[in-house]
C-alpha cells in the first residue's frame, strides 16, 4: 500500500533536519537510485527541499516544507499527481492545517499514514536526527515498502 510517513512536532524540533538526514541516507544506502526530481542540486540539498527518487522500483518522495502557510495540501497532491509515489515522507506540525493536509490527502488518494516525531534531546541534536533517519529507513524496510 502507498504510504505517507509524517514527521510531526512543534517548531524548531528538528523535523526538516531529520528528513534531510533521511534523504542523504537513502541516496548513500542506495547509490544506484534514479533521480526523478530535486528542487535543489542533489549534492547540496539543504532545509526546505523536495526530492523524488526511485529505489528498487519504488518511487520515494521527500517534502520538507511542513509549516503552516506553506500550502502543504497542494504540494502533496501535486507530488501524487505528478509522480505517483509509493512512499511520501513529509514534515508537519502537531495540529492544525498541516495535519489536516496530510489526513485529507491520505484519505483522498488512499495512502496509509504513519505518524512519527523527532527525537527530543538536549544533547547532540545532529546525532538524534541521524538516528531517527536510520530508524525510518529500517521501518520502511521492515514494512516491505522498499
Descriptive key words:
40% helix; six-stranded mixed β-sheet; alpha/beta; 146 residues; globular
* Structure class: alpha/beta
Number of helices: 4
Distance between the termini: 11 Å
Shape: globular
Q: Roughly what is the average pLDDT, rounded to an integer?
A: 91
Number of strands: 6
Question: What is the strand arrangement across the widest sheet?
Answer: 2-3-4-5-1-6
What about the largest sheet?
6 strands, mixed
Radius of gyration: 14 Å
| Strand and helix order | EHEEEHEHEH
Structure explained in plain terms:
This protein has 146 residues and is α/β, with parallel strands linked by helices. 40% of the residues lie in helices and 24% in strands. The chain has a six-stranded mixed sheet, with helices on both faces. It is globular and about 40 Å long.
